[in-house]
Write a structure and sequence with these properties.
Length: about 270
């Protein structure tokens, strides 16, 4: 499958992003493939855990910005969501019953960060870098991180990461509770896959019950996703968001004041 590789071995499903030339920025096809893999595993008793992998230097650079710009400037048909495959992917995350583990080297941006908030264990190298620049794009946090962010990191840390858009290194991620272990690049995948294999050997029903009890009610996270989605519907087509996406693609500094003024002048 282009840009993503799904593999199952010894009870562990690996979901590897392989779009390294674009720093593993997510396309609609990649979101769809990852979502289908997670849902298929829910029906497969042979799979006990998932491991998300990227490429050296790039775990996931977030959503493909050209895709974002295309959706921001298109007029959706009546009843059509502007969120698309990304929204469908994040909607399944609270309902995955099996442990999820991530191995991060290099960039983790946007969904590359909010996905980690749904993972039970996160390995990172010293080269890892975490940033969630949603506000810079004229948007809000995603994937239920309005709930799982403060729950996992505490309110102040969540605000720093998700609203201020601070860039965290591996050590800061470890201190805040986003990262469990900092390891070398050479041992990253082996450590993550080893822990996943260890979980796969544990009593399955006890594992699933223990995880569910720790994570709490998924309905609360789903409700946060719904609220975030409603905000996205408005914000993604706003003048500021369109200016943010366009300036990113055109590699220039955004001019939000001019974008607001131009939109006001048009009425």
């Amino acid at each position: 499958m282009p840009d993503i590789d799904i593999h199952v071995r010894d009870g562990v499903q690996t979901i590897r992003l392989t779009r390294a030339d674009k720093k593993n920025a997510m396309t609609g096809e990649m979101y769809d493939a990852a979502r289908e893999a997670l849902l298929a595993a829910e029906r497969d008793d042979a799979i006990a855990a998932h491991v998300f992998l990227g490429a050296p230097g790039a775990f996931c650079a977030g959503n493909d910005m050209n895709d974002f710009l295309k959706r921001a400037t298109a007029k959706p048909a009546p009843g059509q969501t502007v969120i698309g495959p990304a929204g469908e992917f994040i909607r399944v995350l609270p309902h995955i019953s099996k442990p999820m583990i991530a191995a991060v080297d290099g960039l983790a941006i946007g969904i590359g960060v909010t996905l980690l908030l749904h993972c039970d264990l996160v390995f990172a190298t010293q080269n890892a870098s975490f940033t969630a620049p949603f506000l810079n794009l004229g948007l809000v946090q995603e994937a239920g991180s309005s709930v799982v962010g403060p729950n996992r990191l505490g309110y102040n840390n969540a605000f720093e990461l998700l609203v201020l858009g601070a860039r965290w290194d591996a050590q800061r991620g470890r201190e805040a509770g986003l990262v469990n272990w900092i390891v070398t690049p050479a041992e990253l995948e082996a450590r993550a896959l080893g822990v996943a294999a260890e979980l796969a050997q544990k009593p399955r029903q006890a594992l699933l019950h223990a995880r569910r009890l720790l994570r709490g009610d998924p309905a609360k996270i789903s409700a946060a996703i719904d609220a975030e989605t409603e905000a996205y519907r408005t914000l993604i087509v706003s003048p500021e968001a369109r200016e943010a996406f366009a300036s990113f693609v055109e590699k220039r500094k955004p001019d939000f004041a001019n974008a607001r003024a131009a939109a006001k002048a048009k009425g």
